[in-house]
Amino acid sequence: MDTSIIIKAVLALGGAGLVLGALLAVASKIFHVEIDPKVELIREFLPGANCGACGYPGCDGLAEAIAKGEALSSACVAGGSEIAEQIAGIMGIDIKEEKVAKKALVCCGGGKNEVAHRYIYDGELDCRMAQQIGKGPSLCSYGCLGFGSCAAACPFGAIIMGEDGLPLIDWKKCCGCGVCVEICPRGIIALVSENEEVHVLCHSHDKGKTVRSICKKGCIGCKACEKVCEFDAIHVVDNLAVINHEKCTGCKNCVEKCPTNCITVLLESPHVHPKKQVVTKTVN
Amino acid sequence: MPAEVIIPLQQHIGAPCNPLVKVEERVLVGQKIGDSDSYVSAPVHSSVSGRVVAIEPRLIHTGDKVLSIVIASDEKQEVAPSHGLSDEEAMDSDKVRAVIRTAGLVGLGGAAFPTHVKLTPPKDKPISDVIINGCECEPYIAGDHRNMLENPEAIVDGLKIILRILGAKKGYIAIETNKIDAIRHINDLISSEENIKVVPLTAKYPQGAEKQLIQAVLCKEVPSGCIPCEVEALVQNVGTTIAISEAIRKGKPLIERVLSIAGDGVREPKNLRVKIGTPASHLIEECGGLKGNPGKIIFGGPMTGFALFDLNTPIVKGTSGIVILPKEMVPVSDPRACIRCGKCVQVCPIYIMPNFIGQYIEVGMIDNAEEASVMDCIECGLCGYVCPAQRPLIQLIRHAKAKITDNRRKGGK
After folding, report:
1. Segment A169-196, tens digit of pLDDT
2. Does residue B232 fall inside a structural domain?
3. Which residue of chain B has the CA closest to A136?
4. Is the pLDDT of residue B356 over 90?
5. Which whole-number Å values give the CA distances from B187 to A147, B137, B215, in the listed order?
6. Crossing angle of helices B93-102/B152-166, nearest 10°?
7. Domain ranges of chain A
């Protein structure tokens, strides 16, 4: 057998390999993509289940977002607090000082015991559909309709409808994704930070007299809160009290003064459920 | 004659009017009480003589609260001095449009689009065919039929005015064949007219919808997302046509309209000529009252109307009727999953696929619904009506349309 054929083949293939290898080496230098080493480190800590609960395309996507500072170190839902702390370590931040995650809060206190219906609605049990029929059956044209579109839409099962017809949000499960905010036809769900303590649980811009006639828990725009606030943090705008959370110190003077109790401290809010679980130092 | 009329300052598509009168002021019949500087708008007039008792937000049929002027009638019906225009031939087209705007005319078929705007087509799109819509928009509603029997001269006259100001070549009066008397009546009147023709059409729903009517009369399909001027056509309702004639010949503003009080839930169903602003309760009384406890009281027709929950809701310019259905005729909806029978696709007059669109919307795929031409939907309600699974198709579609319009507005900014 002629050995030269073997040698030729080895030389040809080996030579081609060397040339292409050199090309690849050059290309990898020229087209080098800078990868944040943090991404890989973070990615190692993430569970790798690619569940998508964080809202990013898989764990890789989230790792990149965290490294860029777009997502919180605690954004991984499945990972829990331990992983969040480790990731915060990589990012060089103290998890406790990091901006607290936003959570959904239903800004309405008018359940079905409070607000009557002005007509019998027999259509589909969906707030968005009900809102189309004469702007909704509820007497209050701003408050919760109570058909639970938010509960049905919540991807984390964090919302259930309470006995009073208002949604209860389990803050342990809530990830602040904002799906419920988007779906609510009346726009009464807000994303709030856990460290913002005081909130107005009413959305009505109706005049005080009208509010009083339809709901005992609504804001009547009496301005008592405005007068009692020492920090210029609460103002009645268009018949509704609005809190400026940058100025609010959480002194709760307005909470005590409010005649209809529509200003509430978060921990005591009836819509965060169950109450005790709200106090979470680390998110999730 | 109602003791009190409630006249909303927005009864049309476009900008709301500002009140021109004050509380306690005395107003006369036909006096302008609200107007706006905006082009797409129409002024409102008092339909009674009397005293303004309040200017406040009042509930209208859509469930909105709209700033309204409430007038207590003194039953004298003193008429405000009219501007007394009668020489139509001497007026140029712009003058005619101005008179129509002053008279507060809007489309009386239901949509209430300001008539002067409709009669001003874009310059590069001349109108060659004008269709007068004598097809009732919906079952139970029969006001247009009455109009055609009682006031055919005004219809022909109004059509001539429209043809003249638009420079259009042909006028058609479309009437469904179940109104044979109206067809005969109007045919007799136009025997000497060369460019006006009565077109008898099969009675079906939604024959009275603008784009469907153009298709039936002219065999032209209005392209998706376009208005009828794209096919050089213009549609006016018979009521509007009569109002145009009256506004031009007599200087009469739009203060009353013909509507049907119908359905099995009322003792004596009637077609009535009523003052704008009359509360629904007054009209139901006029028709002998309710028969038992009604299931639903609907403003407009049973397919596209608005269910009422307050009988003090006033009649507005766009109210074509009040339908009162007894309890047993109101179905209780129990929506289930789509069974893929395709009935909705079969009946859809604009050939979209409500089955898929409904499913898209249900799972929040609004973009896919938009791709499937949901915006072309005329909301006739047939798909939901025929659906054996009682799916709330029309509600889903309306929801998506609102969402898409909203998104487009945001994107536009």
Report:
1. 888 788 777 888 888 989 899 888 877 8
2. yes
3. B63
4. yes
5. 55, 22, 22
6. 130
7. 37-91, 102-277
Q: With CB atoms and an 8 Å threshold, state whether B392 touches A124.
A: yes
Chain B residues inside the 8 Å CB shell of A214: none
The residue in chain B having the minimum alpha-carbon distance to the alpha carbon of residue A183 is B364
Categorize the per-residue pLDDT at B85 as very low, low, confident or very high, splitting at 50, 70 and 90: low
B298-335 tens-digit pLDDT: 998 888 888 888 888 999 998 989 999 988 888 777 88
The answer to whether residues B96 and B208 belong to one domain is: yes
Q: Tell me, what CATH number does B111's domain have?
A: 3.40.50.11540
At residue B102, the 3 state secondary structure works out as helix
Is domain A102-277 given the CATH code 3.30.70.20 in the classification?
yes
> B399 and A135: CB-CB below 8 Å?
no
Q: Do A135 and B64 touch (CB under 8 A)?
A: yes
Q: Which helix (H) or strand (E) holds B138?
A: none
Check CB contact of A133 with chain B, cutoff 8 Å.
Answer: yes
Give the chain A residue nearest B394 (alpha carbons): A129
Partners of A205 on chain B (C-beta within 8 Å) are: none
Query: A132–B399: do the CB atoms touch at under 8 Å?
Result: yes
Between CA B79 and CA B329 the distance in angstroms is: 43
Count structural domains, chain B: 3
The conformational region for residue A45 under phi > 0 = left, psi -120 to 50 = alpha, else beta, is alpha
CB pair distance less than 8 Å for A129 and B65 = no
Is B224 a member of any domain?
Answer: yes
Q: How many CB atoms lie within 10 A of CB A160?
A: 13
Pairing of strands B129-133, B233-237: parallel
Chain A and chain B share a number of CB contacts under 8 A equal to: 38
Per the structure, the complete domain to which residue B400 belongs is given by: 343-409
The residue of B362, B399, B404 whose CB has the most chain A CBs within 10 angstroms, and thus the best one to mutate to test that interface, is B399
Q: Would you state the CATH architecture of domain A37-91?
A: Orthogonal Bundle (1.10)
Any domain includes B172? yes
The tokens 């608005």 sit on which residue?
B306
Chain B positions in Cβ-Cβ contact with residue A153 (cut-off 8 Å): 364
- Report the C-alpha gap between B281 and B310 in whole angstroms: 9
Interchain proximity A134–B63, CB inside 8 Å: yes
**Alpha carbon of residue B265 to chain centroid:** 23
